Amino acid sequence: MAESLASAEARPRKEPEEAENLEALLKRLNLKGEELVGVKIGGERMNYLKEEVKWLALGRVHTRKPFSATSLFETMHHAWSLAQEIKPRILEKNLFLFQAMCLGDWTRIMEEGP
């Protein structure tokens, strides 16, 4: 359901390793064609992302039928049984970004959730 965009804070790493880690995560997303447009991360943007973006999960709903995004967000919050609220965002049709507010919730979403 969800792929990681950013890993949780762990031990301090050297800059080249972080760049390689991000590169590996982007490859795991298996982006193709139009999805690759605008995916460029480096320099100052990389530093901004490391500081401002934490505990993200990317999710896609595989259906052609219409559904309520609000209902999806509420359902996932209850299914994940989170301690705090999440910040869901609609990126495009059937593609969503979820930001957890704490490491525990992010871990639950990525490792224990549906």
Gyration radius, rounded: 15 Å
Estimated share of beta-strand residues? 15-25%
Q: How would you describe the oligomerization state of the chains in this entry?
A: single chain
Structural class: alpha+beta
Q: Helix share of residues?
A: 40-55%
Query: How are strands sequenced across the largest beta sheet?
Result: 1-2-4-3
**Terminal Cα separation, in Å?**
7 Å
Mean pLDDT over the full residue set: 76
Counted by DSSP, the helix tally is: 4
Number of strands: 4
**Shape label:** globular
- Major beta-sheet overview: 4 strands, antiparallel
Describe the structure in your own words.
With 114 residues, the protein is an alpha+beta fold. Helix content is 40%, strand content 17%. The protein has four helices and four strands, in the order βααβαββα. The chain has a four-stranded antiparallel β-sheet, with helices on one face. A hairpin with a 2-residue loop joins strand 3 (87-92) and strand 4. The longest helix has 14 residues, at 15-28. The radius of gyration is 15 Å and the shape is globular. The termini are close together.
